[in-house]
Each structure stands twice: as structure tokens, then as C-alpha cells.
Amino acid sequence: MTPNAVLAVMIAFAVAVICTGLMRRYALHRDIMDVPNLRSSHAVPTPRGGGVAIVTAFLCSLFLLSGLGLIDTTIFRACLFGGGAMALVGLIDDCWHLPAVVRLGVHLSAAAWVVIVLGGVPQKTLATWGLHGVWMGGFVAWLVLVWVSNLFNFMDGIDGIAGSEAVFVGVAGALLNWSRGPPGLTAAMLCLAAASLGFLHWNWPPARIFMGDVGSGFLGFTLVVLGLAANQRGTIPFEVWGILGGFFLVDATITLLRRMVRGDRWFEAHRMHAYQWLARRWKAHLPVTLSVSALNVGWLLPWAWLAARMPAYSRYFLAAALAPLVVLVVLAGAGRKES
């Protein structure tokens, strides 16, 4: 990377560390707290809204990358306006609890904006899955943007897990994009990882602040935007991102499906994800967060590397990487009803 790109990454980290500390003081002063209840995985009231620092840090670095001409305007606008809308509605919800229909409406609109300015999943990628049609690429991208944004929110339930996931996916994506992809896109991935790492300084177990919806929705959304951009430029197959985020994808999806089949009020908060069952079983958050990180590096990253190097077989590598995770999360309790 160029010195300017390295500077952008350093700025993202520094701004995130400083702003998270300031946001914690503000949340304590204004009583913006996550108070434990029967569906919580934490035991003491904790400030929330720390995701504001992630958003601020990443967008500052993105402005720098754009101003230096290192990242094209379509990616810039998709992240700024689409991601900004996701962050804003999350922040309002953190403070005043918006109705679910309002949040979903903003999510759908932000995803549609990205498809309009950035485009959808390329036809070449869809054809390998037997999907065709000029509208299909946009529909798939829109659907994935909405689902992953909410998925990250569902999986942000114990200390450090969502922040460390964003660090892993951002760094791994940058490494896979390094040799063949646009350097500005690599820098943007590292900036998002650096912003998440700066926040993680405050959120590592035991957490001193939570990211809240403002951070979780923004992270999931922005990771998909960067992954979509990399796929469009032919550097990283779309399936690679499914592999890198495999644990989050499988745990959230299996949990949701089991609750829907059982007839639960699936849109309500709960503690039925596999990682939440494990946190209660192990009586701590840190072992779960470390285990997920080890799974990411030791299992998912090698499969992602293979998929990136042999894109013609990427869907098979995706299936091979995720199939054991389905068994793992089911055995851990994903979607199991609490007694």
C-alpha cells in the first residue's frame, strides 16, 4: 500500500480508540445504558452506542481515501450514504427504540441505494448458481445487504464477538485482495478492520461499552458493500465472503429458521444463538469469542484462500467450509428453546 493508504488505516484506528472513550463518557453521563434483562447475556448495566466511533473512524478514513483518489466514487457513495443511513437509524434506535417496521424500511432503502449506485452481483457469479435475468443480480445483492446487516445485529450479543469478527473479515478480505485487487479497496477493508480494532480495545471481555445497533448494522452492511465491489472487479469471488463470515452466517440463519418453524415470535430478542448457549455453558464470554476467532483463522480462512485462488470451484469450497458449521451450531444449541 501507499504511505497515504497506511496513514488512512492508522487514522481509522486512532479515531476509533479516542471516540469510543468519549462515547463511553457521554453514554454514562446521558444514561444511555444497556440494562440486563432475562434475554441479556451480560450481568451489569453497560453503556451502549460505541459503534458511533466505528462509523466516525471509518468514514474519516474513507474521505481521505476518496480525496486522494485511492477509491472510486461509487464505492465512496455506497458506503457514505448507504452505510450512513444504517448507522443513523441504528443510533436513533439505540436512544429511543424505533418500531421494527421503520428500521426495516431504512434497511431496505439503504440496500436499494447501494444496488443503484454500485450495481448488483455480476451475471457471471449468478450463472454458476443457475440464476439468470438482468434483475437477479440486483435482487440478490439487495437481499444479502439486508440480511447481513441484521445478522450482525443478531450476533452482537456477547463481549468482543462482533468487533473481532469485523476485524477478521476486514483483514482477511484485504489480504486476499492485496495482490490482484485495487489498492484503494484493500485500504478500505483495512480501515474498517482498524476502526473495529480500535473499538475492540474498549469492548474486549469484560466490555466497557457495547457497539449497539449503530455499529452492528453498519459493519454488516459495509462489509457486504466492500465484498460486492471486490466481486464486481473480479478480484474476490462473492462466495469467499460467505466463507469468511461463515460462523455468523450459519449461527444466525439456523437459529432464525428453527424459531420460525417452531412458531416463535422470531423478531423478538432472545438468547438462543449457539454462541449465547456456549457463553452460558462456559459461564464466560471470553472463551466463546476466542473460540470463534480460532475457528475463523484455523478453519474458514484456508477455505476462503482456496476459493479465491480457484474461483471456478468457489461454491464447492463454500459448501465444504459451512457444512460442518451447521452441525456444530446445532449441537451447541442454535435455535433451541430455553426451558
Which sheet architecture does the biggest sheet show? Answer: 2 strands, antiparallel
The beta-strand count equals 2
Integer count of domains: 1
Strand order of the largest sheet: 1-2
Strand percent estimate: under 5%
Q: How far from one another are the termini?
A: 53 Å
What's the tally of helices? 14
User: How would the global form be characterised?
Assistant: globular
The level of helicity is over 70%
Low-confidence stretches: none
Structural class assignment:
mainly alpha
Mean pLDDT: 93
Radius of gyration: 19 Å
Order of helices and strands: HEEHHHHHHHHHHHHH
What does this structure look like?
- With about 350 residues, the protein is an all-alpha fold.
- It has one domain (about 5-330).
- It is about 75% helix and about 0% strand.
- The protein is built from 14 helices and two strands.
- It has helices at about 5-30, 50-65, 75-95, 100-120, 125, 135-155, 160-175, 185-205, 210-230, 240-245, 245-260, 275-280, 285-310, 315-330, and strands at about 35, 45.
